[in-house]
Structure to design on (360 residues):
């Protein structure tokens, strides 16, 4: 199903998932005059606080899904672990962007790697692992160190373990719950970067500047723009993003994570949604990644990706949220909290964007 004509202000956007990304999508949609209806199973979903309507139901409650689809003009999602049969059902009932096909590709790390490699884009050496014997054989071929990851449902370091020189295959296989997995060769990299790209229904693509990302305990801590890479590397990264988003016939915003290894770019993965490493766009660009996503799925012209300031995005994790007054008093700092009640260790409670005059 394709969008026949752009959606006018006053139309209703259905958002699947009620976390912080859904919340920020709803806020951006409201700025353009749209209403949002959130579908999520958690009664305390942060996105409910800023939406016109919400449905509390499970992702396999097809009666609730059908009712939801009838009340909205387009459906999108804030996370990639939407059950594939749920996405296919929604697509049969309403306009869905990004498509269920793009979602399926991103949900399985083997399918994702095959897709990216098929475009001629470098990825880490990889092998499918469905048993401890498979793991042993994959290590023999790829070598150590390596990383064993579940094929599905992994994020922020969950569902993965490192295979070091002395790691037992049995222990590693047990650590990921003996689930279908992928072994990836370890990449020695200089920097981690990402690209936030958007594509509209007509195929127009817009790409933001490249952030350099720093992780702590597998969770993104900072994104710095501009990244400390050459202009040639930055443009190559942006071109890789354009290639991937076009090949997927994608509609909306996506984040593509990459390693810079020497002078070579290696794609790690892509996320079919707005992305944590794109939060800096809220304060350093006229059009944020969230507004851009709304524009794309609703058939509006894509907005400018021009950056007016240099910026460092800091995730606020767990108890750091108690420093809200300090953040609020900081000059040239955009403060964004997600409305979560409990500050658990490592939980993303908000973020700040610290701006400085643009110099590159």
């Amino acid at each position: 199903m394709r969008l026949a004509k752009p959606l006018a202000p006053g139309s209703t956007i259905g958002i699947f998932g009620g976390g912080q990304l859904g919340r920020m999508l709803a806020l951006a949609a409201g700025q353009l005059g749209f209403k949002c209806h959130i579908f999520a199973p958690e009664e305390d979903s942060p996105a409910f606080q800023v939406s016109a309507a919400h449905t509390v139901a499970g992702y396999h409650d097809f009666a609730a899904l059908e009712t939801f689809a009838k009340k909205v003009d387009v459906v999108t999602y804030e996370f990639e672990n939407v059950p594939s049969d749920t996405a296919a059902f929604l697509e049969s009932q309403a306009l869905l962007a990004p498509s269920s096909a793009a979602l399926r590709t991103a949900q399985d790390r083997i399918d994702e790697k095959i897709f990216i490699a098929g475009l001629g884009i470098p990825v880490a050496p990889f092998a499918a692992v469905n048993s401890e014997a498979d793991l042993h054989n994959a290590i023999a071929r790829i070598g150590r160190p390596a990383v064993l990851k579940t094929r599905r449902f992994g994020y922020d370091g969950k569902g993965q373990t490192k295979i070091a020189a002395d790691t037992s295959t049995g222990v590693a296989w047990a650590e990921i719950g003996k689930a279908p997995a992928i072994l990836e060769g370890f990449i020695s990299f200089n920097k981690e970067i990402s690209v936030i790209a958007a594509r509209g229904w007509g195929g127009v693509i817009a790409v933001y500047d490249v952030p350099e990302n720093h992780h702590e305990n597998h969770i993104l801590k900072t994104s710095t723009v501009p990244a400390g890479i050459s202009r040639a590397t930055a443009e190559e990264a942006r071109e890789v993003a354009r290639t991937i988003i076009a090949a997927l016939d994608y509609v909306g915003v996506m984040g593509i994570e990459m390693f810079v290894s020497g002078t070579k770019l290696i794609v790690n993965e892509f996320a079919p949604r707005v992305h944590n490493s794109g939060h800096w766009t809220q304060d350093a660009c006229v059009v944020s990644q969230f507004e851009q996503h709304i524009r794309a799925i609703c058939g509006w012209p894509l907005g400018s990706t021009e950056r007016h300031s240099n910026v460092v995005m800091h995730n606020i994790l767990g108890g750091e949220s108690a420093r809200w007054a300090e953040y609020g008093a900081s000059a040239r700092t955009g403060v964004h909290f997600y409305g979560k009640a409990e500050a658990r260790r490592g939980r993303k409670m908000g973020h700040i964007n610290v701006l400085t005059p643009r110099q590159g």
